[in-house]
Design goal:
By secondary structure, this protein is α+β, with helices and mostly antiparallel strands. Helix content is 22%, strand content 25%. Strands 4-5-1-2-3-6 form a 6-stranded antiparallel sheet, with helices on one face. It starts with a helix and ends in a 10-residue tail after the last strand. The mean pLDDT is 87.
Length: 138
């Protein structure tokens, strides 16, 4: 992700809205297959809640160690029960739900300059209302 894109997401009052504006045409350009989920990475705010201004290097660490993102697209069979996996009715909404996952899970890709992960539906650990509550150790 370019430093400009990182800054736009990090500085945004509403990171979801900013991510979606950067990915504006993803619905027309991408079809996610199978049980995969395309997740756009959340970038921590430029300033912590305690007022500490984060360096660009610290913010960019979210690209490599980030554990939370916005569900952008799902494959047609994502979160569908089969003979091996039962989701218990759990599902995620595209362009709405924030999720947490293990940083090493999924494949890193960029879509319109936004850092994303392609993750198996079974590797998503939880849904979160506020992405800022999930942190990683630096």
């Amino acid at each position: 992700m370019s430093s400009t894109t990182v800054a736009r997401i990090s500085d945004a009052a509403d990171p979801k809205k900013e991510i979606l504006s950067l990915l504006k045409s993803v619905d027309k350009e991408i079809e996610v297959l199978h049980g995969k989920v395309l997740v756009a990475l959340y970038i921590s705010p430029a300033k912590s809640k305690g007022g500490i201004i984060l360096t660009d290097k610290t913010k960019e660490e979210d690209i490599w160690q980030g554990m939370v993102g916005l569900v952008v697209k799902k494959g047609k069979i994502a979160f569908k029960d089969d003979e091996n996996t039962k989701f218990g009715g759990a599902d995620l909404k595209e362009n709405e739900d924030w999720v947490a996952f293990t940083p090493g899970d999924g494949r890193r890709i960029q879509v319109n300059g936004v850092d994303c992960r392609i993750i198996e539906d079974t590797q998503i650990l939880m849904k979160v209302k506020d992405p800022a509550v999930i942190t990683h150790y630096k």
